[in-house]
Amino acid sequence: MLDEDSILEKISVFSQEHRDLDDAIELILRAGTFDALQVQRMKKRKLMLKDEVEKLQSLLLPDIIA
Fold first, then answer.
1. pLDDT tens-digit profile, the chain (66 residues)
2. Would the CA dihedral through 41, 46, 52, 55 be positive or negative?
3. 44-62 b/e with 16+ CB inside 10 Å = b?
4. pLDDT at res. 18
5. Phi-psi region of 32 (alpha: psi -120 to 50; beta: other; left: phi over 0)
6. By the 8 A CB rule, do 24 and 39 touch?
7. 39: burial class by Cβ within 10 Å (0-12, 13-18, 19+)?
8. Do 2 and 10 contact (CB within 8 A), yes or no?
9. Which residues contact 64 (CB under 8 A, 6 or more apart)?
10. What pTM was computed for the model?
11. Count of alpha carbons within 13 Å of 33, Cβ hemisphere only?
12. What is the sign, positive or negative, of the torsion defined by CA atoms of 9, 15, 41, 52?
């Protein structure tokens, strides 16, 4: 299992990549000429990163017994 510092580092790296992809997608779409398949792949990667960040964040939260 990962320690808290490793989890926080991964969250930081994945969050930065997510923001970078968001910026890149926006620039490509603004340019007007783009490969729809490339944009679709970028959006899929962006979603995967978001899911991974959420999964890692859940590791930092203690289990709550209801």
1. 679 999 999 999 999 999 999 999 999 999 988 899 999 999 999 999 999 999 999 999 877 765
2. negative
3. eebeebeebbeebeeeeee
4. 98
5. left
6. no
7. middle
8. yes
9. none
10. 0.84
11. 0
12. positive
Structure tokens at 29: 């779409």
Given the structure tokens 């997608």, which residue do they identify?
25
Query: Which structure tokens are listed for 45?
Result: 């990667």
CA–CA separation, 47 and 42 (whole Å): 9
* Angle (deg, nearest 10), helices 36-60 and 4-31: 160
Tell me how far apart the alpha carbons of residues 10 and 55 are, in angstroms, rounded to a whole number: 11
